[in-house]
Structures are given as structure tokens and as C-alpha cells.
TrEMBL record:
Transmembrane segments: none annotated. Keywords: Coiled coil, Exocytosis, Transport. PANTHER family: EXOCYST COMPLEX COMPONENT 6B (PTHR12702:SF3), SEC15 (PTHR12702). One of its GO terms (cellular component) is exocyst. This is Exocyst complex component. Residues 260-280 are annotated as: Disordered. Residues 82-109 form a coiled coil. GO terms for biological process: Golgi to plasma membrane transport; intracellular protein transport; vesicle tethering involved in exocytosis. The gene is EXOC6B. Component of the exocyst complex involved in the docking of exocytic vesicles with fusion sites on the plasma membrane. Residues 52-221 form the Exocyst complex component EXOC6/Sec15 N-terminal domain. Pfam families: EXOC6_Sec15_N, Sec15_C.
Length: 815
């Protein structure tokens, strides 16, 4: 039973599977039915499946038949309709065939046109592709052409920029073309060419700058001079917040277009062609004369090429060489101011260029480099100025040089360079300037003293009087009251010397201008220089005049008078210096003028020269003395030479009326003493071995004439008999011999109130020996007269006895 149930279950399962397969066959495409049929054949119920399949086919046939029977009439109608349509379709086919034939015939031209259109379309496509490729290549070619044009017009920095764009932007887009490869191969060569050409431009610029540094410096110094003149004008007006021109004001910043579109011209050489302008026109800026574009271009080119350091080192090296050339002064620079000016212009031009490069480039030069160059330039410039200025003997040239150095220093100070050492060096040149002034004024004083007539200045009108008083500070109420014509006591050299001293002070003041010195320093400098002028230059000039061989007593007297008035004028010179320096003489450490001492020394020298000159004149007259020492005749008048000498002395001392009383008295006393001493020497001269009492009497007359002159008071101010004391030695000696008063002399010798106190035993012995010799000689000649021999012998014995006592007195006096 159970077996039956199992068989029944299996049969139901198989039937269901077969049903599934049949459904799948019905619903599946023919191409995919293989797997389904395989499952049938793989099973064990193949026969049963075939039976079911046959059954299913029969069922479908019956359904088809039923359907056909249901639709048969419609099918017949459709066939009928279809047969009708076939005829129409044949007609339509014929029409279509005919139409196609006509269309084919008519479409041949269209086909040909279409073929042509196809070719055109193909060409158009090719052209479009070609245009696209050309459009891709054209920018490369245009850039390359632009590069060549820029190279040709020497616009190298733009060319370098173009080359960069070409290399990095355009060429990579068309790198597969052969011409691009050629361009790529040429790029390093073009870079080197740009590098070499820009370096060549830089060399031309440096060479041109070296040649034109003086022009640049001259312009910069003109600007500084104009600014200083403007500052002086402002200082003369009310000052309201005025400030010194800053470097920024004086500095002209250039906006140089690096990518210039203009071809290289003369400007690229470094110097613009600027014509000389008139002084009253505006001076162009120093940097306006210079086109720095070659430097900028070369700097940018080397920076782009990665060789900036090489460029900086080359530029600095070349500029150092140029600096050494600029700082080498010409050998004849000291001869003219233009030599110094050109030297300064070149230095200023050099540093103006460097300063501009410092402020318009980043790192090409730095402050340390500029400072190093300036230190070298400063030391070399100062050394050169010390050397060449020492050759200058013209004070005007030294003064112009000082002004030029100040302008040079002020110009460079505007650009920020320290110039204190230059002003320190100017203080050294100031000493040299003072020396050259002293030499110049030595010549001026010499000309004044040589051309002076050493006579009081005559004036015949009030106008002439005021003119002299205006030149020299002189006040004399008595002279003012005198009617015209009248005379000043001094000669013309007094106002001339006084004015020249003031001119010297002005000259000293000129040098101190713009040296940034205080009023005290200026005052001290002027006073010291003026003291040198007075104590050395003027003193030497006066001494030379006083010591001249042909100087006369009148001139010496006038010199004494002149120096007296110049001495009085020293206080006015003090006031003059105080007025121009505004430093009171009472200020601590103020130097005093030594003019008083100078004129006193000159006056004393003139006085001594008067004394010497008088003595020389006396000696000249004494040379005319022709005494007959052997005469026996007694004269009754003084010798002619002595009369003339006394007349000369009277006229000379009459000129001494304007001299200070003491000077005239000293001169008169000196002359009388010298005359007395000379007469004594004449009497005791060794060549005169014999002397008669008659000759001694004549000599006594001459001495009396001298004593009469002394008593007459040739110079007022002597006390009575004071001047006669100059001849006291002679008078006592002559009285002793003429009166033959030996007993009194020998008895009173050594007493303070003795009669012959001034007679020296040795002098008396010398004169006695001369008389003794004459007497002995006369005795021998007259020995034929016996009556005279005894008297002569007695007198000779007396002479011998007196001589013996005189020798004793002489020896005791010496012991």
C-alpha cells in the first residue's frame, strides 16, 4: 500500500516537472531551448514526456483550427483585398521604377556635386586642422620674431623676458616640430649673446661715466651753490621754521622704464646730451644728466640669468679702479683753481653716481661699500690737498680753494657723506692762508714804506682833512682850530698801514666764513693772525726801513712820530675786530693785540738808529778834521769842520720838535757824548806822537765851541749845565794842560771834590808824553841857543817828574 502511495507520489511529481518543461518550451526562445530539452533527455521519463508533448501539440492544433474557423471569412476578404492591392502595387512599382530611373538620371549631377562637396569638406577639415596647428605655432613664431627684433634694436631685457615666455609657455605646446627644436637649441646661445651685449653696454656706460664725472660733479656743485645762496637769502629774511635742504629734496628719483620701446641711443652710453646753460637758468639735476638704464638692464638681465653676484662683483671692481683714477690728482693741479675744481668735480660726480645707484637698486652696492670708497677717497683727497696747497703762494688762490673745498664738502654732505675731516683740514689750510697773507702784506707794507715821503700830510681844505680823518682815527682839537693849509703830524704811511691792517683782518674773516666756527673761534683766529701781522710782518718791514743805509734823520724822526700814532690806534683795531666778530674783548681767553709792543719796539729801534745815525754824521764831520799838532801859532776861532758840525746839529735838533721830549734829549745827549768821546780819541790817537801846546790851544777853542752849543739848549728840557757835562772830561783835561796845574791835580787826586776829578792819570800821561816828545825834539833843534837850554831842561825835568807820578797813580789805580 505504501509502495503504491510512493509510486503515485512520484508519478505526480514527474507530471508536474513535465508540465513545467512544456511551459518553459512555450515561453522560451528557440535559441535557448537546448538546456530545457537536455533536462528531458537526462531524465528517465522520456517517453511519458513525448506523450505529453504530443498531447499538448494536438491541443494547440485544435485551438488553431478553431481560431482559423472563426477567422476564415476575414481571411478570404483579406486575400481578395490583397489581390486587388497586388495590381495596384505593380502599377506603383512601375511608377517607382520609372521615378527611380528618372531620379537616378537626374541625380548624377547631384552625386558629382556631392562628391565634390565631400572633397571640399575634406579639404575644409584639413585646412581647419592646418589653421589650428598654425594658430598654435604662430605665437611661437611671433614671439621669436619679436625676440629677434628686440635683439636687433638692443632691447635686451625685454628680449630676455620674451625668451623666457617663449621657452616656458609657447615652445612646449609645439615641441614636436623640427623648427621648435632649432629654437630650443638656440636659446642658450641667445642668452649668452644678451649677456655679452648687456655687459658691453655696461662697459660703455662705465667708460662714459668716467669721462663725464666732472660734468656730473660740476652740476651737483652748482646745485649745492644755488641751495646755499637760497639759504643765505632765507637767513637774511625773518626765519619761520626754516630748515636745511634735506637729501631727499636734493635727490631726484628716476622712474626708469626698463622695458623701453625706443632703440638704444646716445643715452644708453650713460650721459645725456645736455647743452651748457646760462647761469641765470635753472641748473638741471645732477642725475638728469645720466641715463642709468644700461646698469639697470644689465643688473636685471644678470639677475634673471642667475649671475647677479658675478655682475655685482664686476661692477664694484670696475668702480674701485675708476675711483683710484679719479682720486689721482694731476701734477699741476696747484697752479690754477680750475685744476682743483676739475679734481673736485670728478670726485663729486663719482659719488653722486654711486649714491644714486645705492638708492635705486637693491644690493648692487651697499652702504658698507660706499663707506669704504668714501674713506679711501677722503684720505687720498686730504693728502693730495695737503701736498698741492702747500705750493700755493697766492692768498687769493688759497681763499678760492677754501671756498671750493667748502662747496665740495657741502655738496657731498647733502648726499649723506661725512665731511668733518675736510673741515679739520681747512683749519690746517687756514694756517697756510695766514702765512701767504703775511707774505703778501709784507710786500704791501714794503711798497707803502718805500713810497712814503716821510713828511707830514699837508691838507688845504676841509674835504681833504675829513678824508684823512676818515681813513685814520685821529683827534687833535688844536689842529682842528688851525686855519688851512695845515699839516697832520704823521706821514701818509700811517693811514695806509692802518687801512691795510683792516684789510688783512677782512681777509682773515673771509677765510673763516662757512667753516662752521663759533664767533669766539673766529675772533681768536683773527686776533692771532693780526698779532703775527703786527709782531712779525709789519715789525720786520719797519725794522728794514729803519736799518736801511740811506735812511735819513728826518725819515727816522717821522717814523718815530708815525709809530706813536699807530700805537694809539691799536685800541681802535680792537674795537674793529670786536664789531665784526661780536666777541667782547673782556671775554675769557680773548687774545689781546700786540700792536702796542710792536710799535714801541719799532720806535725804540728808530730812536737807536737816530742815535747811531747822528754819531755816524759826527764821525763823518770829524773825518774832515785836519789839526796841525805841531803848530806853534795860537788860533782865535774854532775849526771850520767843527763849526759846520755844530750847525748841522742845530738844524737836526730843530727837526726834533715833534718828537717826544725824552727822545730828543736822549739824542742830543748821545750826540754830545759821542762828540766828546771822539774828540778825546782824536786827541789821544796813537798816530799823533807829538803835540804842541799851540795845537792844544786850538783844540781847546773847538771844545769851547762845543760847550757853547751845549749851553745854548739845542733841545728844551735839560737842566742847566746838564748837557755840558758831556764835555767835562775834555774840559778838565784841557784846563789841566793849558794851565799846567799839575801841583793841584797831584795834590787833590783821589779827593771827591778835587778840581780835576774827571781826568784819568793814564789819559793825562798819554797826552803829557806827546808834549814831552815835542819838547825834546824842539830842544835838539834849538841847542844852539844856550840861554833856552836851561829852561827847557827844567821843564823837561818837571814833565818827567809829573810823568813818573802819573805812572805811579796809574799802576796803583790798576792794582
Amino acid at each position: 500500500m505504501e509502495r503504491g502511495k510512493m509510486a503515485e507520489a512520484e508519478s505526480l511529481e514527474t507530471a508536474a516537472e513535465h508540465e513545467r518543461i512544456l511551459r518553459e518550451i512555450e515561453s522560451t526562445d528557440t535559441a535557448c531551448i537546448g538546456p530545457t530539452l537536455r533536462s528531458v533527455y537526462d531524465g528517465e521519463e522520456h517517453g511519458r514526456f513525448m506523450e505529453k508533448l504530443e498531447t499538448r501539440i494536438r491541443n494547440h492544433d485544435r485551438e488553431i483550427e478553431k481560431m482559423c474557423n472563426f477567422h476564415y471569412q476575414g481571411f478570404v476578404d483579406s486575400i481578395t483585398e490583397l489581390l486587388k492591392v497586388r495590381g495596384e502595387a505593380q502599377k506603383l512599382k512601375n511608377q517607382v521604377t520609372d521615378t527611380n530611373r528618372k531620379l537616378q538620371h537626374e541625380g548624377k549631377e547631384l552625386v558629382i556635386a556631392m562628391e565634390e562637396l565631400k572633397q571640399c569638406r575634406l579639404q575644409q577639415r584639413n585646412i581647419s586642422a592646418t589653421v589650428d596647428k598654425l594658430m598654435l605655432c604662430l605665437p611661437v613664431l611671433e614671439m621669436y620674431s619679436k625676440l629677434r627684433d628686440q635683439m636687433k634694436t638692443k632691447r635686451h631685457y625685454p628680449a630676455l623676458k620674451t625668451l623666457e615666455h617663449l621657452e616656458h609657455t609657447y615652445l612646449p605646446q609645439v615641441s614636436h616640430y623640427r623648427f621648435c627644436k632649432v629654437m630650443v637649441d638656440n636659446i642658450p646661445k641667445l642668452r649668452e649673446e644678451i649677456k655679452d651685449v648687456s655687459m658691453s653696454d655696461l662697459k660703455d656706460f662705465l667708460e662714459s661715466i668716467r669721462k663725464h664725472s666732472d660734468k656730473i660733479g660740476e652740476t651737483a656743485m652748482k646745485q649745492a651753490q644755488q641751495q646755499r645762496n637760497l639759504d643765505n637769502i632765507v637767513l637774511q629774511q625773518p626765519r619761520i621754521g626754516s630748515k636745511r635742504k634735506s637729501k631727499k629734496d636734493a635727490y631726484i628719483i628716476f622712474d626708469t622704464e626698463i622695458e623701453s620701446t625706443s632703440p638704444k641711443s646716445e643715452q644708453d652710453s650713460g650721459i645725456l646730451d645736455v647743452e651748457d646753460e646760462e647761469d641765470d637758468e635753472e641748473v638741471p639735476g645732477a642725475q638728469d644728466l645720466v641715463d642709468f638704464s644700461p646698469v639697470y638692464r644689465c643688473l636685471h638681465i644678470y639677475s634673471v640669468l642667475g649671475a647677479r653676484e658675478t655682475f655685482e662683483n664686476y661692477y664694484r671692481k670696475q668702480r674701485r679702479k675708476q675711483a683710484r683714477l679719479v682720486l689721482q690728482p694731476p701734477s699741476n693741479m696747484h697752479e690754477t683753481l680750475d685744476g682743483y675744481r676739475k679734481y673736485f668735480n670728478q670726485i663729486v660726480g663719482f659719488f653722486v653716481v654711486e649714491d644714486h645707484i645705492l638708492h635705486t637698486t637693491q644690493g648692487l652696492v651697499n652702504r658698507a661699500y660706499i663707506d669704504e670708497l668714501w674713506e679711501m677717497a677722503l684720505s687720498k683727497t686730504i693728502a693730495a690737498l695737503r701736498t698741492h696747497s702747500s705750493y700755493c703762494s697766492d692768498p687769493n688762490l688759497v681763499l678760492d680753494l677754501k671756498n671750493l673745498i667748502v662747496l665740495f664738502a657741502d655738496t657731498l654732505q647733502v648726499y649723506g657723506f661725512p665731511v668733518n675731516q675736510l673741515f679739520d683740514m681747512l683749519l690746517e689750510i687756514r694756517d697756510q692762508y695766514s702765512e701767504t697773507l703775511l707774505k703778501k702784506w709784507a710786500g704791501i707794507f714794503r711798497n707803502i714804506l718805500d713810497s712814503d715821503n716821510y713828511s707830514p700830510i699837508p691838507v688845504t681844505s676841509e674835504e681833504m682833512y675829513k678824508k684823512v680823518v676818515g681813513q685814520f682815527p685821529f683827534q687833535d682839537t688844536e689842529l682842528e682850530k688851525q686855519p688851512f693849509p695845515k699839516k697832520f703830524p704823521f706821514s701818509e704811511f700811517v693811514p695806509k698801514v692802518y687801512n691795510q691792517i683792516k684789510e688783512f683782518i677782512y681777509a682773515c674773516l673771509k677765510f673763516s666764513e662757512d667753516l662752521h666756527l663759533s664767533s669766539t673761534e673766529v675772533d681768536d683766529m683773527i686776533r692771532k693772525s693780526t698779532n703775527l701781522l703786527l709782531t712779525r710782518t709789519l715789525s720786520n718791514s719797519l725794522q728794514n726801513v729803519i736799518k736801511r743805509k740811506n735812511i735819513g734823520l728826518t725819515e727816522l724822526v717821522q717814523i718815530i712820530i708815525n709809530t706813536t700814532h699807530l700805537e694809539k690806534s691799536c685800541k681802535y683795531l680792537e674795537e674793529f675786530i670786536t664789531n665784526i666778530t661780536n666777541v667782547l674783548p673782556e671775554t675769557v681767553h680773548t687774545t689781546k693785540l700786540y700792536g702796542t709792543t710792536t710799535f714801541k719796539d719799532a720806535r725804540h729801534a728808530a730812536e737807536e738808529e737816530i742815535y747811531t745815525n747822528l754819531n755816524q754824521k759826527i764821525d763823518q764831520f770829524l773825518q774832515l778834521a785836519d789839526y796841525d799838532w805841531m803848530t806853534g801859532d795860537l788860533g782865535n776861532k774854532a775849526s771850520d769842520y767843527l763849526v759846520d758840525l755844530i750847525a748841522f746839529l742845530r738844524s737836526t735838533f730843530a727837526v726834533f720838535t715833534h718828537l717826544p721830549g725824552k727822545v730828543a734829549q736822549t739824542a742830543c745827549m748821545s750826540a754830545c757824548k759821542h762828540l766828546a768821546t771822539s774828540l778825546m780819541q782824536l786827541l789821544l790817537e796813537a798816530e799823533v806822537r807829538q803835540l804842541t801846546l799851540g795845537a792844544l790851544q786850538q783844540f781847546n777853542l773847538d771844545v769851547r765851541e762845543c760847550e757853547q752849543f751845549a749851553r745854548s739848549g739845542p733841545v728844551p728840557g735839560f737842566q742847566e749845565d746838564t748837557l755840558q757835562l758831556a764835555f767835562i772830561d775834555l774840559r778838565q783835561l784841557l784846563d789841566l794842560f793849558i794851565q799846567w796845574d799839575w801841583s793841584t791835580y797831584l795834590a787833590d787826586y783821589g779827593q771827591p771834590n778835587c778840581k780835576y776829578l774827571r781826568v784819568n792819570p793814564k789819559t793825562a800821561l798819554t797826552l803829557l808824553e806827546k808834549i814831552s816828545r815835542e819838547m825834546k825834539d824842539t830842544s835838539r833843534k834849538n841847542n844852539m841857543f844856550a840861554q833856552f837850554r836851561k829852561n827847557e831842561r827844567d821843564k823837561q825835568k818837571l814833565i818827567d817828574a809829573v810823568a813818573k807820578q802819573l805812572r805811579g797813580l796809574t799802576s796803583s789805580h790798576h792794582s
